[in-house]
Amino acid sequence: MHPSIVRLNENNTQLLDDFLEHAGRSLRSFRYYDKRPRSITEQHACTLLLTDEGKAVAYGHLDPEGGKTWLGIAVTETATGKGYGRMMMQALIGEARAQQIPALFLSVDNDNLAAIRLYEKNGFVLQEEKGAIRFYHLDLS
């Protein structure tokens, strides 16, 4: 079975629960759901999960908020280094282009070097640093 991208909908919300349950230390840097209910996905432009052998191993979303579309991405602790982050990033950028979203924004911890490399390889440009957080932008227009 090959990895596949699945769009989250009302019939497969268990995939999100499974991802969050098995993400492990990845949730130290992916804190999106710390102060948000899981139902926030209803407001996303899209929420995607990457599954491999039936398990959700990566998560991604495009979240319109405050006039910007924020990209969020995470890979379970046990699945890092397998290219899942790259696959999810490409799927999210493709989805943003399909929806004609003009730009994407994201924030990342300064010490999350693997994520920073992924973002920069995909064309994200550093906009500013605030404390321990970096803010990136990708122009899609």
Provide structural commentary:
- It is globular and about 35 Å long.
- The protein has a domain at about 5-100: Gcn5-related N-acetyltransferase (GNAT) (Aminopeptidase), CATH 3.40.630.
- Helix content is about 25%, strand content about 35%.
- The chain is built from three helices and seven strands.
- With about 140 residues, it is of the alpha+beta class.
- The longest helix has 15 residues, at about 85-100.
Helical percent range? 10-25%
Number of strands: 7
Give the helices and strands as they follow along the chain.
EHEEEHEHEE
- Known CATH architecture of the domain at 4-100: 3-Layer(aba) Sandwich
List the helices and strands and how they pair.
Elements: E1 4-7, H1 14-22, E2 46-52, E3 55-65, E4 68-75, H2 84-98, E5 103-109, H3 113-121, E6 125-130, E7 133-139
Antiparallel strand pairs: 1-2, 2-3, 3-4, 5-7, 6-7
